Protein: GCN5 family acetyltransferase
Organism: Streptomyces mutabilis
Amino acid sequence: MDGVEERASGEGGRVCLVPWAEGDLWLLRRTNVPEMTAHLGGPETEERLAVLHRRYVESEPGRMYRITLADGGETVGSIGYWQRTWRGAEVWETGWAVLSEFQRRGLAARAARAVAQAARAAGPHRYLHAFPSVGHAASNAVCRRAGFTLIGQADFEYPMGHWIRSNDWRLDLKRGD
């Protein structure tokens, strides 16, 4: 799949998901700032960014994307889905980052709906989960607007040595909404 487009329109416009490529390390660096990583334990080292970038380029199973505006192609953030074992079952997990200057336009929710389409098409897992920090109001609102259901809370260690209390949001990919 070359890309995915969320066809919902609105104030922020439509978004496209463009598969992550070699030249996209700049985007990881742009989102690796204190105000965008506060709910994830803070910025990563340059070495860790290089590892993440390599994983994003090679992401299998799953895929990482740059979020672009459908009109004009300007990059506004990143999103992806990847496989994880959660409570004894294989599921897809998603996460996103929208550049500060593009926040509060509904773009992350549009991208989350588009990544759900991509995860659904990729199969084989029934559920797509998102685990934003309980204190991250904006990301929790994205989950709600994108159609996820709040299941409960869970604790995650990310990065190593830093525990985060997260909400467990789940989207049923077999419902086909």
Summary: Confidence is low (pLDDT under 50) at residues 6-10. Strands lie at 4-6, 15-19, 62-69, 75-86, 89-98, 127-130, 149-157, 163-172. The helical segments are 25-31, 34-37, 46-57, 107-122, 137-145. The longest strand covers residues 75-86.
